[in-house]
Amino acid sequence: MNRVILAINAGSSSIKFQAFATEGVVGAGDNLERRVSGLLEGIGSQPRLLIKDGAGATLRNDNLSQAAAPSVEAGEGIVGDWLQSDDAARLIGGPIGAIGHRVVHGGADFSAAAQIDDAVLARITALTHLAPLHQPKNLAPILAWRQRRPDLPQIACFDTAFHRGHAEVAERFAIPEALYLEGVRRYGFHGISYEFIAEKLTEVAPAIARGRVIVAHLGNGCSLCAMQDGRSVDSTMSFTALDGIPMGTRPGAIDPGVVLYLMREKGMDAAALEKFLYHQCGLKGMSGISNDVRVLEASTEPQARLALDHFVYRIAKEIGALAAVLQGIDALVFTAGIGENGADLRARIVAASSWLGLSLDADANAARRTDLSKSATGPRVLMIPTDEELMIARHTRRVLAL
Ligand code: ADP
């Protein structure tokens, strides 16, 4: 029977949701048919509900009052009500058979998506201290749908799961083992996106999919993943989503001595440091202007230029580090908001990494083609749009064998 899988991706100020019909066969290339995609963004500030049909036509674009969605939990109610409306039923065109959720932290235990029962829910909840800003937002729709539709199977898809196979040398910090054993280790995030790219590569570039690939997921959060034969070997994010390359509002890797300095000299406590490191650094903090690459590119302020220069410098530096891990690379893949749309930054990152044999075709780059490489030989430069919701739906289907 054709059943519908809902994929829900609840973030710190937005909830993305999509509905897929279960057509086709299970496997890497399985084609789920997208019926609806929705976004409730600006939660807590200027909420806006955007709903599109499977072809991408906008069906609703409603500005809501701030009071309507002051929190992700309240926003979840709005999304849940809509998904149970006649409007939604008409568009989705079949009974909802299962729900897949993005869950940021799966800790050391979850190396694959898991069906949520009481025990799994307790384990996910217990991991909240490892991702205090994100895990509660991910849990909100899980808890709400358990109340709303206890009959529906729900699947948790973890951003850490794709990275669980890292070698111990890569997974360790140089700290006493007792801390490693209690969970202080390099996990890695954006795994749902990286897994989607790994699967997509088997379709668009099968030879490369088996090789050494660095994927640059450059969105609001940014990280790099080194993959070998479709599996994650290392990643720039680690214990939390603060590590690695700079991001819109996060600094990336920073000397821990800076944190000690802020505590001693500025009197910052954990809450103040958390706010500073997650929201006031990165491109926004450095430029003093914006976290949005488009705004910085349009600015003539020297600080905007410096922030972008630093962004490119740090990414190229980490590409070099991951190339050392992989002992060379067969492809660099760009994905997510900046990676997919920022043609100028792509060109600059590739230029800064040309020592690896990477080259960019300016026309292909401007036209947003998949293969952006100039040279017919040597490592490839690719641009592949990510699709985390589709990956969540695939996992949900595979776990339940729908
Ligand atoms: P999220 O991590 O929330 O899913 P996205 O992957 O959508 O975020 O990425 C959002 C980022 O994409 C924005 O902060 C913006 O800087 C960047 N972006 C969007 N369009 C462009 C563009 N045309 N050029 C450069 N950057 C862009």
TrEMBL record:
Pfam families in the cross-refs: Acetate_kinase
EC number(s) recorded for this UniProt protein: 2.7.2.1
Cofactor: binding comment: Mg(2+). Can also accept Mn(2+).
Binding residues annotated for substrate, in chain numbering: 102
Residues the UniProt record annotates as site (Transition state stabilizer): 190, 250
Xref: PROSITE patterns: ACETATE_KINASE_1, ACETATE_KINASE_2
Residues involved in ATP binding: 16, 217-221, 292-294, 337-341
Gene3D superfamilies: 3.30.420.40
Keywords of the record: ATP-binding, Cytoplasm, Kinase, Magnesium, Metal-binding, Nucleotide-binding, Transferase
Residues that, per the record, bind Mg(2+): 9, 388
Family: Belongs to the acetokinase family.
Reported function: Catalyzes the formation of acetyl phosphate from acetate and ATP. Can also catalyze the reverse reaction.
Assembly: Homodimer.
Protein name: Acetate kinase
Species whose genome carries this gene: Dongia rigui
Name of the gene: ackA
